[in-house]
Write a structure and sequence with these properties.
This protein has about 325 residues and is mainly alpha-helical. Helix content is about 65%, strand content about 5%. Helix 6 runs antiparallel to helix 7 and helix 7 packs across helix 8. The longest helix has about 35 residues.
């Protein structure tokens, strides 16, 4: 008698575990960490932004001078003189160091932080959007190993830049440029941030705050596409594609500086057009570009490139380093799901 009961063999199908959705807590952590990063960062690097903007706005003044020479022959009662009018373009500043010297001499050290309030108020939410959107997009488009493909890096960076340009950067940059430019006048028009914003809206309408919208979107989109693409590529190269392996903070800062410098070389002409447009001197981006090309040549599109390079390399290097540090702290005090 057989005491063992047999059952027909059942076909067992193994099903892959469903992929976990990106943690909403992680996304919110990215937003908060981005805001903290922006606030700390802008307090450090704003003076270089001030110098860059002053140099870009310094298109010079045309001064007419008379050149005199005595002509012969002349009589005992009458002498003949010949005058030739010459036009000379005089720049207000001779370089970055000259901007610092003249600003501190005329306005004091506080003059180097003229417009920082609007940039600080704008930078904190901008960095929140920047890192929050990129982390959100990365969570949805990365592979199973947590890494993005080269094309996905560009796409996520581009989406991040467009989002921050539409939501924040355009009007913040417009107010910053107007306040800095207003400082150069003998009698400033604006008493502060709120007064500048209300005056622009009253005189030019709400769209006055969005002057230079197209070049701003192009600039931010290309900037973040380059920066995040280069940064993610360098991280992947160092870690060998292991998303769980951390990168030392000095290397993070260096990688960020490289990413920032690369973006400057790629879109400084767009940044110059954007700054001139936001100053309110041109009716369209194309007109602005034509005027710069006609009056200043190719070099005009790279005005302020060196101080912008210094600022961006410092800012982006610090930003990624600060962000990674904050996120490391959050792993302990505010763990994700």
């Amino acid at each position: 008698m057989c005491l063992v009961q047999t059952h027909p063999t059942a076909n067992v199908r193994l099903r892959e575990a469903p992929q976990l959705a990106p943690s909403t807590r992680r996304g919110f952590r990215s937003i908060v960490a981005g805001g903290l990063t922006g606030g700390i960062n802008i307090c450090i690097v704003f003076p270089t932004e001030f110098i860059k903007t002053q140099l870009q706005l310094d298109s010079g003044r045309n001064i007419m001078t008379a050149h005199h020479s005595v002509m012969v022959p002349y009589s005992s009662t009458l002498s003949w003189s010949h005058s030739v009018l010459q036009s000379k373009n005089l720049k207000l500043y001779n370089g970055s160091v000259d901007v610092v010297k003249k600003t501190i001499k005329e306005k004091g050290l506080k003059g180097m932080y003229r417009g920082v309030s609007v940039l600080l108020c704008g930078t904190v939410p901008t960095y929140s959007v920047r890192f929050g959107v990129f982390d959100f997009l990365k969570g949805h488009f990365s592979g199973r190993d947590g890494n993005l493909s080269p094309l996905a890096r560009l796409g996520c960076g581009m989406g991040t830049g467009v989002a921050e340009a539409v939501l924040l950067v355009t009007w913040v940059e417009t107010l910053k440029v107007r306040l800095i430019s207003d400082q150069k006048k003998k009698v400033p028009l604006y008493r502060g941030l709120v007064h500048a914003a209300s005056s622009i809206v009253r005189n030019e309408g709400p769209f006055g705050l969005y002057k230079g919208f197209a070049p701003t979107v192009l600039k931010q989109g290309s900037s973040q596409a380059i920066r995040f693409s280069v940064m993610e590529s360098l991280r992947s190269w160092y870690t060998g594609g292991d998303s769980n392996k951390s990168v030392p903070k000095p290397l993070v800062a260096m990688f960020g500086a490289i990413a920032g410098g690369t973006s400057v070389l790629g879109n400084t002409p767009v940044d110059v057009v954007k700054t001139r447009m936001q100053n309110g001197s041109y009716s369209s981006s194309m007109e602005c570009a034509r005027q710069i090309a006609r009056k200043e040549g190719v070099r005009g599109f790279y005005k302020g490139c060196l101080p912008r390079m210094n600022r961006v390399c410092l800012e982006v290097g610090l930003a990624f380093c600060i962000y990674d540090t904050v996120m490391d702290v959050f792993k302990t005090v505010w763990p994700s799901n």
